Give the backbone structure.
Amino acid sequence: MKRGSFVYHLGGYTFTFPYLLLFAVFLIGPLLFGLGLSFFSWEMLSSESPHFVGLDNYREALDDPYFWRALKATAWFVVLAVPFTIGTALLLALGVNALPKRQGFYRAAFVLPTMINIAVAGLLWRWFYNSEFGLFNAALNVKVPWLTSAELALPSIALMTVWWTAGGSFLILMAGLNQIPESVYEAGAIDGVTGLRRFFSITLPLLRPALFFVSIMGVIGSFQVFGQTYVITGGGPELSTRVLVQYIYETAFRNYRMGYGAAMSWLLFLVIAVVSAVQFAVNRKGEPK
Amino acid sequence: MIRPQKGKLILLEALLLVAALLFIMPVVLIFLTSFKPDAEILRFQGVLPQAWTLENYRELLQSSAEIPVLKWLLNSFFISGCVTLLVLAVSSLCAYALARLDLPGRKQMVTLIIATMMIPGQILLVPVYLILNAFGWLDSPRALIFPAGAGAFGVFLLYQFFKGLPKDLENAAAIDGCSRLGIYWHVALPLSKSALAALAIFTFTGSWNDFLGPLIFLESLERYTLPVGIALFQSSYAIEYDLIFAACVICTLPVLVAFLIFQKHIIKGISLSGLKE
């Protein structure tokens, strides 16, 4: 069989076929289908058959106070969770990286929570935050309404998220720190660059790619927050923690308004895409020349 | 890395130890609490159980009608096991062909597949639900297994890895009359054990910990996976914290064991996945 012949190519493509079939049916297909769906009114439980409504679903979302409320809660969560997660991860990574030994133990400790299922983690923290017999109030001897006040509930969930997800960013930042060559620090030491100056003029710039990666992934992931709020507060109190994915979930899978649900998920996608694009632009602008 | 001086190092390690304890404690608490009698859980009297008991586990495993924990556990194992096998099989075949075979259009295919990694998963929920509904696959393990096989991460990870394999080994095998499938199976796969192990562990824990998928695609109680079962039984029953903690331990143990055994591969997998730049 000759390389480059028709039979050769056909044989090669059969390797890719099983994956591409799944890829087409469960990724590309649904992506296009979902986009089309967002222009239809499709109420699964109604006798009315799906019909084209153009941009009506999108218009409805923009007029829907609950959509805005959910988007606001989601954005607030992103603002709270992402910087604190990355900040925590960065501090931990710098600390562990400076240790001569036992790095493995600390790495395992910080990554451990990311392995815990959100149902388990959520239940646990619900118990911590319980204002009657929760661990936090008992241990601190206070009466803080962690989850029952509309102002505190989302920050409480963000705090839990820092614990749950910092390990992932920590690992990536550790990998980034390990790639900074020793010689750069040695050269800096000869020039008398030490302490905080060393951090700001050597470590931070060289860690940029890793920091950029964790912030992009953190923002994309946090806009899709759902498990935490669903398990810990169920969206309450007063809808203060009902994030966009939960609103989409309720619209599509409780009220079976598929078209509207699809339209809102495309709006969420749009928001994520715009925010990521801004991050990319800012990153490019600040890049050392 | 230039190390801090001795005094600073001790302070640093003390701080890190406190942080590590804060990260570990919640997980340890799940385990310890699962051995506490009911009354002790409600009135917190210290971290260690004052009266150790296995009662919670016994009760949990016996209350199988409303809370079929063992069934959920088996469902979780079955689904995560199948997802892992499927992902390893289809993505390694596809990644191998795209990385090592001379096929027209492969660059474009790779770009397309990797580009889909930027798409947030929730955008697929509604259409995938409707497709599964049309197939009649809802409320069956298939609804969770096959869509997971379409994920791009495995192809991406293995593609990067296969690209770096030396050409000579392949050529030698080809001269010995090995077919392309034979080279993939006898040369490429054995050389990629660490990448495959990393992918396996990511896929297994990812599937095991998936929450939104099973919540939406499964309907009947006895078909649930463990996490969805746990979340449901805390919301629809009066909270029985004793049973919940035992169930949480059962849900956590498999990934914890996998994590401890494959820790090195997890770390390696992160650096394999192209973050090196």
About this structure: Residues 69-100 of chain B form the longest helix (32 residues). Chain B touches chain A through 89 residues (CB under 8 Å). Residues 139 and 220 of chain B are 7 Å apart (CA to CA). The mean pLDDT of chain B is 87.
